[in-house]
Structures are given as structure tokens and as C-alpha cells.
Amino acid sequence: FQNIMGILLLSGAWALSVKLVLMFLEKNQKNQMKNLKFLALGMFAAALSFSSCGMERIDAGHEGIKVNLYGSEKGVDDISLVSGIVWYNPITTQVYEYPTFVQTVDYAPFTVNAKDGSEFTVDPTISMKITDGKSPLVFKKYRKELKEIIESTLYNYVKDAFRIQINSFTTDDIVSKRDSLEKYVEKHLRTALAKENFELEQLTSGLKYPEVIVASVNSKNKAVQDAMRVENELRVSEAEAKKIIVQAQAEKEANELKTKALTPAILEQMWIEKWNGVLPQYGQVPTLFKDITQ
Fold first, then answer.
1. Per residue in 73-123, pLDDT tens?
2. Cα Rg of the chain (Å, integer)
3. Which of 217, 114, 110 is CA-nearest to residue 174?
4. How far apart are CA 138 and CA 80, in angstroms?
5. Is the pTM of this model over 0.70?
6. Count H helices, E strands: the chain?
7. Which of 81, 82, 222, 288 is the residue whose CA sits 20 to 30 A from 238?
8. Number of Cβ within a 10 Å radius of residue 183
9. Does residue 98 contact residue 136 with C-beta atoms inside 8 Å?
10. Is beta strand 110-113 parallel, antiparallel or unpaired with respect to 54-58?
């Protein structure tokens, strides 16, 4: 869009210049050679003036940086250009754009050693932005595109922050105090980036433990889980044994109560209730009735 607008403006200006020159020639037809020289000179001047006019549109969420390429004022202007269209001379001046919105960067993993020599892997992701109004200072220091600064210079600051903090922790402390470690890293990196006119919004360490530590932790967790499983099984067995004891005790007490309740009179009554009225043919005939005379 910017190129099309520039071409249209230059084409319009060129056409206007030619028309003005032709109108002048119509009024001065007597001195043709002189007029032709004037026409050539005018067209050259017009081409020179329009070719030296550049335009840049600074988008919203960006800051424009106007850089003087020649002369005593060579360097970065003191003013950050706001969003809008900027006109400049491309021969002596150049305009850059730095985004000022928050950018999330997923850096490549790297390794760092703990205080006792254990090697940890860091796979960091950070969210950051350039401090508003500080784009000219950043460009003046690095003279690079913002993307290149983030991928190289700021990456080194990230690695330094993790290296300095992890070097001061032992392996056990890193495992048991990971939250504290990450807070120290974030504080260190935030301070370092602020000095470079950047603001840290969020940091994720992606810290990965050595395989030996992972295996040790898994083994410890398995032992704890096995102990808990055995303890649970023991509790279940104890509960089942108690249940059996309680059932046996209940049955014993029930039988004792039944035995105490079976008096001779009750047994006789039960025998009579179950008798079918037939006497045995052999052996002693049971006495069915008591002798009431005695």
C-alpha cells in the first residue's frame, strides 16, 4: 500500500510538472532551443526532487526511528515518531520501525550446571516488550532490527540469568526449592532487561531434571506407593479378621443362649410336636405321660 501511494504521488507530481512546462512552451514558441533546454532542466529537477522524497507509514503498536545517515547530525533523532505517515529524504535519512507490543519468544533449550555439578536443561519461554519511547536508545546502541536483538542479545541475558542463579543452588535445593529458584531468575532477568530498555512480562523456565534425578525420584515415589499399598492391604486384612472374629463370637453367644434356653420341658414339648403318633415296635417304649399318682 505504501509503495502504491508513493508511485501515485510521484506520477501525479511528474505529470503536473510536464504540463506546466508545456504550457510555458506554448507561450514562448520563439526560442525553441532555449525552451528545450529549459524543459530538460525542469524535468531533471523534478525527477531529482521527487526521487529524493520517501514516505513511511508507522503502524499502530510501533515506534518509528528516523536515522540521519550523513552530516554533523548523523545518528538517531531525539524524537520517536508516532503512528502515521512520515516523509523523509531516503538519500540522507532512513526510517526503522520497532514493535512496542508484548512478544512471546520460545528460545532454544540450553544446559546449566548446578553448584554440585549436576546438569540441568532449561527450555525458556519469555514474554517481553520494548519500553515505550525507548526505541531510539535501543537502536542507537545495537544498530539492528528488533527481531535480531531479541534472538541474539536478549537470549544471552536469559542464559546468564539462569546460569548465575542455578550455579548458586545445589541439586537438592533446585528440586525442593524450584519456585524460589525461578523467582530469583525472574528478578535477575527483569533487572537486566530494564537496563536495556525492555520490560519482562512473564517467564517460564521449562526446567528439566537430569535423568539420574528423575529415575531416583520415580524410584522413591514407587517405594512410597508400594508401602502405602501394603499398609492398605494390611488394614484390609485386619478388618476382615476382626469381622470373622466378631461373627464367630456372635455365633458362639447365640449358641450359648440357645443351649441355656433348651430346658427338659421345652425339649419334651418339641418331641411331642414332632411325634407322628406311631410307637416303636422294638425296644423300650418311651413313656409318653407322667404318672400323676406319684
1. 555 554 556 557 777 677 777 788 899 999 999 999 999 999 988 899 999
2. 50
3. 114
4. 12
5. no
6. 9, 10
7. 222
8. 13
9. no
10. unpaired
